[in-house]
Structures are given as structure tokens and as C-alpha cells.
Amino acid sequence: ADEFPQDERMRLAFALEANSEHPLAKAVTGYVKDNKRDIFNKKYNITEFQSLAGNGLSGINGEDKITGGSLKFMSNTVNVPKEMDKKAQELAEQGKTPLLFTRNGKLLGIIAVADVIKEDSPRAVKELQNMGIRVVMLTGDNERTAKAIGAQAGVDDVIAGVLPDGKESV
What we know:
Elements: H1 6-17, H2 23-35, H3 37-40, E1 46-52, E2 56-61, E3 64-70, H4 71-75, H5 82-93, E4 96-103, E5 106-114, H6 121-130, E6 136-138, H7 143-153, E7 157-159
Parallel strand pairs: 6-7
Antiparallel strand pairs: 1-2, 2-3, 3-4, 4-5
């Protein structure tokens, strides 16, 4: 991933994520808006955009196919080096969601998105538990990330890795 300059990696991730309404995409585009104005102020043309529910995104930027998504999803489409896999696992254990990006099948790198719980969430969870309510966190995030966030919030149980169309049945 080092062969691609950092701003180029961020530019391609931003171009792809700008087409998505997903909260993780909004986190990436929000970061670029707040910290990388030179990237944010340019127009990037992504064609053939596809949102792959609960997994990732793909699209064409000029001659390049750009793909982004979860470690699990991306591991099925590109060879993720052991050190990159290890870094993604470490980020997940810290409560961050690692998103991997490729250009033409070559790994660009990882962007970690942190789900920050609201300051009063642990108290709200505790109040629900005091009323006899079992609090379960249901998320599409990977299990490591979900457990880290669930522990911070103090929930009774965490059910992770559930795709959007499967959440209602769970």
C-alpha cells in the first residue's frame, strides 16, 4: 500500500464513499471535508457504483476499479498481507471499524472509523437494565469491534455481523 501516496489513497476512498449513504461512508467523507479540503473541493466521477449490502462498495474512477469494504469482504476479493490483517484486527479490538480499499485489485490501505458512543449511553443502558430490560446491541460491524463498543456501553449481549436484511429476523 506504500506505493500509493496517502492523499491519493484518501482521494479514491472519498470518491467511492461519497456515493454511499451508509454511516461509515459519512464518517469518511466527513473526515475529508473537515481535514482534507483540497480533496473535498474537487469533483470525482465514480461510474458503475454498486453498494453491496453489509459488505462494501465498488465503482469505476476513470480507468480504475475502486473497491472498499470490511476486512471479511475484502479478504474474499484481494490478498490481504498478514501485517495488514493484523493491523485491521488490532483496530477492531480498539472498537474501530477497519475499511480496506483497493484500486484495480491492489490494496491501497485501511481507513479506521471509530463508533463513538454518546457520553450518556452507559447510564441509559444501566437504567434500562435496572428496569429489568435486557439490552442487546445488534450491528453489522465485525464481532471484535462490536464487543469493544458493547463493553463501553455496558450492554448485556452483542450480536454482530448481521447484514441489514437480516436484522429484523434477529
